[in-house]
Write a structure and sequence with these properties.
heterodimer, A: about 400 residues, mainly alpha, 21 helices, extended, B: about 475 residues, alpha/beta, ten-stranded mixed sheet, two-stranded antiparallel sheet, about 50% helix, about 15% strand, globular
Chain lengths: ~400, ~475
């Protein structure tokens, strides 16, 4: 759970305001009331505190009750009206002449009408979507949504971003590009998702660029929205990021590739010799998704002989996934290493390649991390499900 | 100066100190509650359907090993494991640690999930009693059962689970608890938002009184037992009032042992859970804070108020007394072990505020409350406390308790609103009034005894708790 840094300042200000306001109220209660009724100072103060907070909580309790009743009534009204509104929208989209009735409903129930349109924007595509845009403009939802976007809560603003973009038609991508820079990250994510849905070339690269600057969670979410544009991204910004000198850019590009888990026409060969261990490990984990060149086994071999345990582990797993028989001697040698993680990776690779001979030999010798790893891998192969499938 | 006058002065001074103490504790609680309210209002926990689906599909979502220690849990183990296996997460495994149960826990698991003895080896070596065997399922379910020798308490069992766990994150859960299907995804989220996140904890709610079907809470309700109902209120106060605010100040000291998520690497680096304390959950969190601050590494420990772990609370006074005694001993042991951090600016807000707060109010609070009752009872016949004043003081203290409870119920109403019926909310208010007549005093006695037991080391271990199956309610 996290709040935005700007919110943090507000939270501090509001908390301080409530507490100091309460302090003033307590002082006034003690000064004007309690000191005249209760003659003991400390008890008078305690009673003042209790009276002020008790009164505030009673007020809040009243508000809770009012909010509950209001929400219940609103829900009941929505449940009653929404089907009628949807029916009218459907009639209008089907070419019926019910526009006046819909306009009437929109005037009476603007929130419910807006919600029905928002739901439909999520599911209707193509020509029907265009008709829906016209209809929403005709019933005057644009002003309502613009107001919500300017002054609403985060939830309301997120709710209208998509609709406003569609209503803006050709100007939609420009509006969304502006929304991407919104200080509220939730609005930014929604804008990015809509932009990925509506956009072309440059605007999709803007979304990718936005994802790169955000947290891992945002990248995980936007990776799905960017999936339809994979080939153009792979040719453009992903390829240039992978060739960049900036380690963070490379790492983020590799993370996006991992999120897509789809074969891409990019080269990772130079990254197998990158100075950053993290990048090398990440690149080794993605080798099965790209085209392998003649140099790849050689680079993998060098990684299998690396000093860093993590790199050797990742290289062994990659060799197993790619079924590179030429690396069999190196993988067999790894079974004799003292590091249990390396032995396990090598055993798993050999098992994936179907070479059980070295594993069985190792089991027979027993008493070493390699023998234990070999036994584990052979048993896994026989039981049929591989718990390490996602670990590499 | 006569001795009577001396005694009178001493008692009077104690009375003033006591009044100041009660005033400070109440004000700090209120301040935390106000802060918690604004934090909850400004936090958007909700994920849209599309975001949730994306995260549930994504290989970028960190993998989780759910470690559940089990000791004589035959009544609930199968249901709990089924519920844990069906949690919504893209990559999670369930590691059940059978801590040398004397009932049919292991046999039930072997039969129900078709377990075989696995060749899987531990991945880490945090201290724990010897592991007798590791089992995995013949069915395509990510279930691992670790059978270990009994001893060392829950911490020992957790360490065995951490050693066998494979994934990046380790979720520590009680095997008698039920997690909501998406709880794991929601507590994983802070790790994806902030690479410096070391641990997260979710809210614990009381399952007593709820209707459970198929290992899930189908209908939320209040328990009929008054003792359990008081505990509902206590949990709301503790989680919504205190932990939200402490988390916001990055000084959360306690992630409940019933549901917490840790970076596995961090647990292994810290040497696993401490087997010498019964408050291993709090001790681990304080140790992480301490280590990270000493090494000047970024560290965030986050409380997530939305994902819910439902737990059974004791309805029998004997079990409840054991539990509170243990909690109090755990708090005391942790504070004593990390006393170096108290008022030490090197440890930031944790050293300057959170730990002193726990020491002054959570550790010694029950003792002070008990002292207040004793002083009043002794002071009345001796004449240094008059009856009218004592009654007024009791009313004020009750009013404060009521304010705090009402505040917690309001926080719940304004933010999460898990209790849908107005009758339940009214039931909670009634409990908030009634708990002042007997329950609070009983708690003070048990907790004070726990503190003494902890300091004198006269009692160790966990004690026993009577369990019911979930679906029986």
């Amino acid at each position: 759970m996290s709040t935005r840094p700007t919110d943090n300042h507000w939270i501090a200000v509001k908390t301080a305001a409530v507490l100091s306001g309460s302090g003033v109220l307590i002082w006034m209660t003690e000064d004007r009331v309690m000191s005249r009724v209760v003659f003991s100072g400390d008890l008078g103060w305690a009673l003042s505190v209790a009276a002020v907070f008790g009164a505030s909580l009673t007020l809040l309790l009243l508000m809770v009750t009012i909010f509950r009743i209001r929400d219940q009534r609103r829900e009941a009204r929505s449940a009653r009206v929404a089907p009628v509104i949807r029916q009218e929208i459907a009639a209008c989209l089907a070419g019926g002449s019910r526009r006046q009735e819909l306009e009437q409903l929109s005037r009476e129930y603007p929130d419910e009408t807006g919600q029905c349109f928002r739901d439909l924007f999520l599911v209707l595509k193509g020509r029907t979507n265009k008709e829906l845009i016209e209809l929403a403009n005709a019933v005057g939802l644009r002003q309502l949504w613009e107001l919500a976007y300017r002054q609403g809560t985060t939830e309301e603003r997120v709710g209208v971003v998509r609709c406003l973009a569609y209503l803006a038609s050709e100007a939609g991508p420009a509006f969304l590009a502006e929304a991407l820079a919104d200080p509220d990250p939730d609005v930014g994510i929604e804008a990015a998702r809509t932009l990925a849905e509506m956009g072309n070339g440059d605007s999709v690269e803007d979304v990718y660029d936005y994802a790169r600057r955000q947290s891992l969670m945002v990248r995980a979410i936007l990776a799905e929205d960017l999936r339809p544009h994979l080939s153009s991204l792979a040719r453009g910004i992903v390829a240039s990021d992978l060739a960049s000198r900036n380690a963070a850019r490379i790492r983020h590009a590799l993370q996006m590739m991992r999120a897509w888990s789809t074969p891409l026409a990019v080269s990772l060969d130079p990254l197998l010799e990158h100075q950053s261990l993290v990048i090398r490990v990440e690149a080794l984990g993605l080798l099965n998704l790209i085209h392998i060149t003649g140099d790849t086994p050689g680079r993998l071999r060098r990684n299998l002989q690396d000093q860093a345990e993590k790199v050797v582990e990742a290289a062994a797993l990659a060799a197993g996934r790619l079924h590179l028989d030429s690396l069999l001697p190196e993988l067999s040698c790894l079974l004799s290493r003292p590091e249990a993680a390396v032995c396990r990776a090598a055993a798993r690779a050999l098992s994936a390649m179907g070479h059980f001979g070295p594993l069985e030999d190792k089991i027979r010798t027993g008493g070493s991390p390699g023998a234990e790893a070999a036994l584990e891998a052979v048993q896994k192969a026989h039981t049929g499900h591989d718990l390490y499938a996602r670990v590499g | 100066m006569s001795w009577e006058y001396g005694l009178w002065r001493a008692l009077k001074t104690t009375q003033y100190v006591f009044t100041i103490y009660v005033g400070s504790i109440s004000l700090v609680y209120l301040a935390l509650m106000v802060l918690g309210f604004f934090v909850l209002r400004n936090t958007r926990n909700h994920l849209t359907d599309a975001e949730r689906i994306a995260l549930l599909k994504s290989p970028l979502t960190p993998s989780v090993s759910v470690v559940a220690p089990a000791f004589n849990e035959a009544a609930t183990i199968v249901q709990s494991v089924r519920a844990m296996l069906s949690l919504h997460h893209p990559d999670h495994e369930v590691v059940v640690v059978n801590d040398g149960s004397r009932d049919d826990t292991l046999k039930l698991l072997i039969d129900e999930f078709r377990l075989y003895r696995s060749a899987r080896q531990p991945r880490a070596s945090t201290r724990c009693h010897p592991i007798r065997a590791i089992y995995e399922s013949r069915d395509p379910v990510p279930l691992v059962v670790v059978d270990k020798e009994n001893g060392g308490g829950k911490a020992d069992a957790l360490n065995a689970g951490i050693n066998v766990a494979l994934k990046d994150l380790v979720a520590v859960v009680d095997s008698d608890s039920l997690l909501e299907p998406e709880a794991l995804l929601y507590v994983t989220r802070p790790f994806m938002e902030d690479p410096g996140c070391a641990a997260t904890g979710g809210i614990i709610r009381v399952v007593n009184g709820c209707r459970v079907h198929g290992g899930r809470v189908a209908e939320v309700g209040l328990p009929s037992s008054l003792v359990a109902r008081f505990q509902v209120l206590e949990y709301l106060r503790a989680f919504l009032g205190g932990r939200v605010a402490f988390s916001h100040l990055n000084s959360l000291l306690l992630i409940s042992g019933a549901f917490g998520l840790f970076r596995r690497r961090m647990l292994v680096e810290c040497g696993g859970f401490d087997r010498r304390t019964v408050g291993e959950d709090m001790e681990m969190v304080v140790r992480i804070h301490r280590r990270m601050r000493e090494e000047r590494r970024p560290c965030r420990i986050v409380f997530v108020p939305d994902p819910v772990c439902w737990t059974q609370v004791p309805e029998h006074l004997g079990s409840l007394s054991n539990q509170r005694n243990r909690w109090q001993r755990g708090t005391g042991e942790t504070i004593v072990r990390h006393k170096k951090m108290l008022f030490n600016p090197r440890y930031g807000v944790v050293g300057m505020f959170a730990l002193p707060y726990f020491a002054a109010f959570e550790m010694f609070g029950p003792g002070a409350e008990l002292l207040g009752y004793i002083l009043t009872i002794v002071g009345l016949p001796l004449g240094f406390v008059d009856l009218e004043r004592a009654l007024l003081f009791f009313c004020v203290s009750m009013l404060f308790g009521l304010i705090l409870s009402t505040g917690a119920i309001l926080l719940e109403e304004f933010t999460l609103r898990k209790y849908p019926s107005v009758r339940d909310v009214l039931g909670l208010f009634t409990a908030a009034v009634l708990e002042n007549f007997g329950y609070r005093q009983l708690m003070a006695v048990w907790r004070a005894k726990g503190l003494v037991d902890g300091l004198l080391n006269t009692r160790t271990g966990w004690g026993t708790m009577r369990r019911k199956g979930f679906e029986s309610r």
